[in-house]
Specification:
The complex is a heterotrimer of chains A (494), B (251) and C (226). Chain A has 494 residues and is α/β, with parallel strands linked by helices. Chain A has two domains: 294 residues, NagB/RpiA/CoA transferase-like (Rossmann fold), CATH 3.40.50; 64 residues. In chain A, helix 2 crosses helix 12 and helix 16 packs parallel to helix 19. By secondary structure, chain B is of the alpha/beta class. Classes of the chains: A alpha/beta (494), B alpha/beta (251), C alpha/beta (226). Chains A and C meet through helix 2, helix 3, helix 4, helix 8 and helix 10 of A and helix 1, helix 5, helix 6, strand 9 and strand 10 of C.
Amino acid sequence: MSVQSDSVRPHPVQAYSPREFHRQAHDALGNPQIRANFRKAMDGLMTKRHDSFGDWDLEILRELGANIRLRALAKLPDLLEQLEANCEANGIRVHWAEDGDQACRIIRELCESHDARSVIKGKSMVSEEMHLNAHLEEAGIEALESDLGEYLVQLNEQTPSHIIMPAIHLNTDEISEIMHDKTGTERTRDVDTMTAAARQQLRERFMAADVGVSGVNFAVAETGTLCLVENEGNGRMTTTVPPVHIAVTGIEKVVEHLRDVPPLYALLTRSATGQHVTTYFNMISGPRKPEEHDGPQEVHLVLVDSGRSSIYQDDELLDTLRCIRCGACMNHCPVYTRVGGHTYGTTYPGPIGSILSPHLMGLEDTKDLPTASSLCGACGEVCPVKIPIPDLLVRLRRESVGEGRGNVPGAGVKRTRKEAAAWKGFEWLATHPGVWRAGTSMAGKLRALTPSRLGAWTDYRSAPKPAGTTLHALVKQHEAKRHQADKAAEEKRP
Amino acid sequence: MTPVKCYPSKPEKVYFFGTCLIDLFYPEAGLDGIRLLEREGIEVVFPEDQTCCGQPAYTSGYQQEARAVAAAQLDLFPEPWPIVVPSGSCGGMMRTHYPQLFAGSEREALAKAVAGRVFELTEFLVHVCHLRLEDRGEPEKVAMHTSCSARREMGLADTGPVLLAKLGQVELVEQARAAECCGFGGTFAVRHPEVSAAMVEDKTQAIEATGARRFVTSDCGCMMNISGRFAHQKKSVKGEHIASYLWRRTS
Amino acid sequence: MSARDAILKRLRERADGPLTPPECDFAVVTNRGWSPEERLERFERWITSVHGEVIHVATHDWTTALVDVLTAKGVQRLALGREHPVAAEARRALVDAEVELVDVDRDIEAWKREQFERVDAGLTSTLGGIAETGSLWLWPTPDEPRLISLVPPIHIAVLDADTLEDTFFDVVERPGWAGGMPTNALLISGPSKTADIEQTLAYGVHGPRELVVLVRHAGGATEAGA
């Protein structure tokens, strides 16, 4: 089944690479449309999130969310086995994949065993992470995204720029143009018309699909249940209409109990889009039973490791695995807002991407991501499961200059002799106060000679000039004056 | 969430940690902070051997170097007095990250003790000194930029505005996206200059749009960034450390 | 070694040692203590805020309202179950109506295109609802399969007011879902929607464009109106 049919051609997906962060950032910053699209979207999402938690004791809810995720991680191997056993008992076949390639092979082979030519997809970031669509297309199997945003991005031969809102980088006019070019839809600015057209186009594909592939938001160990969160109904279609449903997810997505789900769901929808609830919460605990009339005949769950068990080894890095993929850290990140999702060149952009991608792709490729943050803390502040993202960014900076624990692939790749020597020099100065004072005092005296251009800083800002006198010196003068005044006061006394 | 901090009653003496940026670029801000404290009847001790809190190395990933620099500061505060820092960024480093830097080492207890005594200047003036101010300046509109470290790492979004509100003639203006980072971020501004520039550009526009001709901040990193942008564009909006602003208007 | 065993081995032999699971306090997601009136008010507020329609009816003649809805929306072909009392009563009430009743106790393969293209509305019962989020709780059955709440452009759901719970957590806990999950359990909170085109909300992207909830009151519809 590797013959390529005429109707299926691998799409040349527009390539972004984390190695090119600087160039891609430069391009995005110079693109007023991109800038405007993201600014508007992020402003709206921040406001909506803020409003949606109005009635809640958010800090207590976040605490609970963090603890649920930590409890699940603490018991992870047991829960995965329990999940597997309960899924199998429910009739869901469970597969394990060491990495994305193996997961792709498993899914392709499942498709081939059903002679499947057409796969319809619900939103799954893990499938993006492992480039499933390209893999299937190489095997002559067409994979079509059905989430409207993913569909638009796929039509435009791009990758998602946000994990929740894949087409957030596009505005209405651009989308109208894409739909016109790729599907013959009449140009319009009316969103309802475009939505209706996409509905029509995709309904045919749901009916024709041989296999539905979805992600998983929470996998419940206690009951062997796969939970999917969505608004559109494409997730339900994908997991109900085709005869085979394959769910693919990272091993960290498991939770222990069904009761763990409501708090996480409450946090997820509010953090992601400021919704108090999504339209659909779809809980799948098995394929169609003999007496049932719809639903897939087969359900498969593919559990993907792909670097996660390696993150799991380290007490600090472990927190990365708490993530429930809400995207709030992106929505609140001043860097993401400026450069957009594609600039990162990774499946997961923004702050969570910058702490996750180095594990998935290695620091050789991703070394510019942990530094692409001003450490303003907005991401950590809004994270619904309280991942200390800024601390993890610093940890990865440590790893990339070879001063961490060496637990990240490519550790030390960013260390240069010049920079290391500079920081050693800083250390020496800052631990020799006498020399420090002499140096700072000298800088003040020579301020006229300090350069008025300081590399990139002065492309956009005036250069700071050392003051003529240091605070050390000012304090000395100030204390001397005070002593004099005290003395004078004392002398006046009889 | 920052845990609720129990504030001590006003002490007789405090240490003052001036920070390296103030030492080199904005010494008057440091001195004005000292003057404000002294006016409250507090004796201010300025340990002469202080240099830098170590944050630049820390956020760049140079952990050993940061630890060595921090270790040198730990010994400067032997008496149990509060340590006042006119910067949320350096204060946050000392309060939050010193204990982490020395975790598991023999200096852990000392690092925790020092961290527990660190106060950001505006925090100290509001919550410990219960500062009263008599405004002698002209009526003026002013914008405030609270640093991200003060706002989020130290949980001090309000102390700056509280102090400004005590100045009778000063109107603190609302600013679009006030909580958003100015783009400084220490070495971030150097490593990602274009992104940082886009951020400071938006920040200066937001401040300018308020109509205020002056902005105050409690962090000199932000000030260097925002003022530097205004100056580069030959704009007349001026920045001032909040300590200087308070001292200037009330002395 | 299989991928499974290798992954589990790595997780079990964790370099930094075993982890201690923290305690979880669920108080924040339960114990709302709302009265039935408060529950109903919240349910209605939330589900209408996302474009759901709520119609209060007396339990004894809810089918009158059903007929009105079908007429108002021009429904000509209605998909519905057979055995559930909701379906059975609806069938009786619609026996002389203009509306054609579409049987759903057929394997989907036999009538996929018909369901996708030639059904105007699907009628389902519900097992309850959630006041805090304005959600309906459905467990599809052979009598009322999964797709009739998804594929037709209009979904009409029948909810008994006294089955409302405060929160999702309460819904999961009280009836003890974990003791036996159906193949598919659903929460439905409004019609299908998307905001993927420049954050502009549009309804009916894949599922129903309209969701009508007939809230039945044992004491009569006026009880709710008050």
